[in-house]
Amino acid sequence: MTTRDELVGALAGRYALGGRADRGRMLDEFAALTGHHRKHAMRLLRAGVSGGASGPRAERRVYDQATREALIVVWEASDRVCGKRLRPLVPILVPAMERHGHLQLAPEVLASLLTMSAATMDRALREARGHTGGRPRRRSPPSAAIRRSVAVRTFDDWNDPPPGFMEADLVAHSGPTSKGSYVQTLTLTDIATGWTECAPVLVREQKLLTAVLSEMRKLLPFPLLGFDTDNDSVFMNETVRDYCAGAGVEFTRSRPYRKNDQAWVEQKNGAVVRHTVGYRRYEGLEAAAALAELYRSLRLFVNFFQPSFKLASKSRDGAKVTKRYHAPATPHQRLLADPRTTEATRVRVEAIYATLDPVGLLRQIRASQQELVTNADRPVAGETMAPTAPTLEQFLSGLRTAWRDGEVRPTSKPKEKAKRGRRRPDPFVAVTAQMRAWFEAEPWRTARELLERLQADQPGTYPARQLRTLQRRLKDWRRDKAHELVFGLTAAAVEPVPNPLRTVT
Asked: Is the pTM of this model over 0.70?
């Protein structure tokens, strides 16, 4: 309505001064835009004002101020319910309030109140609701505006970028539960070369994320040109957006719920991070420091000594998808082979490569993995001494026979479960010696017979449901007795004493 009024005001002057042909063209355009009949449009443009007021029309109000005030009283007495619930409540609530002397309405006001619709009640109560500070209308989260300001980039939109355009993602090390605070890994993967950098993030905080990203940029052999993330709120915020804008980094995002848009970094999340770190829960400064130490060796081993495949093309023929890959190469080799790599970058990575010992790096990775496992499993394995890291010579000699031990990565081995101890007290602890004497005297007696004798000796103390416990106890005694008859010694003399707190149900 407001736009129509503005259009009438803009065209009225030109319409009055224009010629016949000009007025005809303006009239056709105005009628097409507003949908008015041609004759009505002519009257509006001649008068220069809109035919209908866009604001509220007080002269057409059906309900007066007294009805509105009565509605507010009834609405307050109903505990401020909505119009759809208030409308059927009025015929019930008003008589009850009048019966107890809380309200006295004139007949015409009551009649108007009973005929008011639910939508009219909501409109009449709009101002009152605004002053009561009720629940505000749900608004979109702040990250929604940030997402609209960040360009979307899909898997097919990369078009062979130069080194420096990287995808980023967070890998949570929460273990079996996501409660509480835990360490996460920020993973960066270069699209052109597959160069991968990892760093621990102690908590999900945008300022800490940008600080970690600044440290990772110092380790990259090339400048960071593009930063592509998912729609996580730790990325979609003003802090990260302004950081990228200030650093001259192109900030893009994937589509929501489309993990294939970030296929490059998602592949490294599994092949590098999960393959090396595993699925345990890591929390606290000590775990973050151990992860940082692990990633210092891992980044060199992965980028210089771990060849990987890179997708060259993909075609679809009906339901059949054909993928073709480039020859396997390390990120270091792809970086040197790329003609867009600068000479300074080539010199830098070649100097680093000349100093690297792959076996020494692998040994450091295994030692860091063992430290991570020791830290994560401390509540269970705290009583045992952690294995010491082997020397480089011991590690090198063990490479020939490591395959016989199966899985060698400590982070991939399952967490040892503690043996469950006795949860309930021993019911026969007070009469064990007496029952053992009965058994020694008559070893052929069954557990039921011994229990019945005990019940007769101490009535009401030992119920029949404890028969299974006594049967297990009798089994151990019979084993000791048989060992004594065969070897002349009791089993306790040649075997370790059993734990008196082992599980008995």
From this structure: no
